[in-house]
Model the fold of this input.
Amino acid sequence: MIRVDQAWLATAPLDMRAGTDTALSRVIAVFGAAHPHHAYLFANKRANRLKILVHDGIGIWLAARRLHQGKFIWPLLGEATYGLDLAQLDALVLGLPWQRLGEHGVIKLV
Done:
């Protein structure tokens, strides 16, 4: 239904009371612009809630997800943003360890 070509994760927490306009203004402040078919992910301070803003080329979609147990695996505040591939996005939304997918999960030395 919604095409996502690229996903971006912001390390700074977002107030989960934020609506579409507030989340969009945060995307523009953190990422510089909201590009079509890009997903922008934010978590709250406890990392048990997630908001995803997607610009589909015509309008804006805002989705929320909450874990009743545990928390989303979120990077520390070292860098302001991270790029995710689609497999990592799928794993993150499910609450799985997304950092182990892609280049980070490759074994290079025995």
The first helix runs from residue 20 to 31. Helices lie at 20-31, 86-94. The chain is about 20% helix and 25% strand. Strands lie at 6-10, 38-43, 49-55, 60-66, 81-84.
